[in-house]
Amino acid sequence: MLEGLLPQMPPLLTLLGVVLVLFLLYLLSSTPGQGKDPPGPRPLPLLGNLLLLDLKRLHLSLCELSKKYGSVFTVHLGPKKVVVLAGYKTVKQALVNYAEEFGDREIAPVFTDALKGHGVLFSNGNSWKEMRRFSLTNLRDFGMGKRGSEEKIIEESRYLIEVFENFKGKPFNTTQPVNYSVSNIISAIMYGCRFDYADPAFQKMVDRANENIRLLGSAEIRLYNMFPWLRWCCGWWLVNRTQILKNFEKNIDEITGLVKGLKNTLNSQDLRGFVDSFLVRQQEESDQLGSYFHNNNLHYTVSNLFGAGTDTTGTTLRWGLLLMAKYPHIQDQVQEELSQVIGDREPRVEDRRNLPYTDAVIHEIQRLSNIVPMSLPHTTSCDVTFQGYVIKKGTTVIPLLTSVLQDEEEWETPHSFNPGHFLDEKGCFIKRDAFMPFSAGRRACLGESLARMELFLFFTFLLQRFRFTPPPGVSEDELDLTPTVGFTLSPSPTCCAL
């Protein structure tokens, strides 16, 4: 009997040793509030605080933790230590008053795999500075926030209305037509032209970008970003990562082809869009070693702006249509105001100042839809002392935008759809400092002014001509506002135009 047990002793001792080491690591791990570190739940070895978190609704888990640990706290996503900033005052202080210290971008493994440090959204250092500066300048030059963009959006609104009218009041999914119309705005700025909604190459490019947004928020990708070594031992399991990389590669191939066509017809005296401007700059710096105006930065920056410019505005607009279907009395007030102020003519940007209720509704749609709940994570560029805590250089930082847009100290009814948040007692529109859907600081959304113009014009054009209701057999109360899982929070496709 003793002889039968002896062969089992070495692996048993090894297992006991591993358990002992993990237990010691747990005992030695930092306790809440220890030293100058921000407080937080004690992490388990390797797993960190994963057992406390819902990876499908991570922003909600972090909001709950902030109630216990405060506005600056530590959480361990697997082995990675992350500092979370919660509440309007804390997030604004970090991103605005400490803009340089909190200004670097966290580049998760999946973005390293896909973008390789190129582009403008997931890059750092001098390359990022050059691409952001160039992007801001040229987005403005080619119409962002100007009359040129207004005309593009009005033209695109007419195409979108035509698509909606073709459904003749029957229930339909608004996702694709809305996304195609919004994509055409950023496409016109990038390439100098729009695409037909029936163009299969355009459809696939938009659909792939939107699929990636959905997959990037999956639990599988969150786990991969925490444990990137999984690709070496569990590559067969990482189907979402594989699909994301395929989608990125296909879209880059499409962009490369479009850029080639523009390059062959380039006229430096008549620039059609962002790509032309980049190509001219590339030619000017062709003899400069280390120039950042190379093809990779061109292709990935266009890809970044195309994807971000499509998803965020398109998703917010679809939230708006769903909320109008759910709250018909608010839709009534919007349409009454539009009728009184605009009548049958087409809306213009200048009408905004005479449409305070409509403007308040659009702002409240953005606030409640909360489509980028954790912003895009940052990293600290140096050691920083913030609110009495020491945060080391290179620490991942999550500015929890959900906690800003639903801050109970800033909003009267933070969890309800209430356009009154943006109206004074006389019904005039008022700005709210805690309205930060585009984030803030040096990493704030590049296309904020364009997005604001798009939302106003698309929304008013649609509400002027259609009434949005739940599909047959579904009441307003039954319309579900639970967002679908993704990198951004999207609505369920349930409303129809009549």
TrEMBL record:
SUPFAM superfamilies: Cytochrome P450. GO terms for biological process: aflatoxin metabolic process; organic acid metabolic process; xenobiotic metabolic process. InterPro entries: Cyt_P450, Cyt_P450_CS, Cyt_P450_E_grp-I, Cyt_P450_sf, Cytochrome_P450_fam2. It comes from the Eukaryota. One of its GO terms (molecular function) is iron ion binding. Gene3D superfamilies: Cytochrome P450. GO terms for cellular component: endoplasmic reticulum membrane. It is found in: Endoplasmic reticulum membrane; Microsome membrane. Keywords: Endoplasmic reticulum, Heme, Iron, Membrane, Metal-binding, Microsome, Monooxygenase, Oxidoreductase, Signal. Its cofactor is heme. Heme binds at C445. Residues 1-35 form the signal peptide. Pfam families: p450. Belongs to the cytochrome P450 family. This is Cytochrome P450 2K1-like.
